[in-house]
Amino acid sequence: MNDAQSLQQAIDEPVRLAEYDSTWPAHFDAERERLLERFPVALIDVQHIGSTAIPGMPAKPIIDVMAGVASMAAADSLFEPILDHGYVTSREFNAALTDRRWFMRHANGRRTHHLHVVVHNGELWRQRLAFRDALRADPIQATRYAALKCELASRHQVDREAYTRAKGDFVRSVIAQ
């Protein structure tokens, strides 16, 4: 399988949740160090977000990495260097994004990492950390979110975008608290 075929397989993969894996934080730490080593000046901070960052949470086994930069112009200046550093993306998808740049790493036809490059301490930065931190701090909310994720993964097995959209109301309600 060549890189283009592996990328297409990763894009088309179904929504499958895995039980929490205690090695996910170490996978994040390794990627964080790799990114900070390559972009020590441009990246202000790098945080572990998404379900793999919440102990006990079932998740698609993809490490979500959020890298904070000074501005969207700084994010755009990193676009090609990030691609040269083992990530891939859709230029068309990124052209539609105003608040972030999105990349993924994959291996053997499976996504391994998502990289979200956002303005450090901007609205999206604060929202993603608020959601993560709220679920880390509130086991009841985390349990509700886990149940919702499982139900939605079953309902939207072959539509990742629908799965993500369907979680939106819950995510927004947690951030609003």
Automatic annotation (TrEMBL):
Entry keyword set: Transferase
InterPro entries tied to this protein: GrpB/CoaE, NT_sf
SUPFAM superfamilies for this protein: Nucleotidyltransferase (SSF81301)
GO molecular function, one term: transferase activity
Taxonomic source organism: Franzmannia pantelleriensis
PANTHER family: GRPB DOMAIN PROTEIN (AFU_ORTHOLOGUE AFUA_1G01530), GRPB FAMILY PROTEIN
Domain of life: Bacteria
Transferase listed as a keyword: yes
Name of the protein in its database record: GrpB domain, predicted nucleotidyltransferase, UPF0157 family
Positions in coiled-coil regions: none
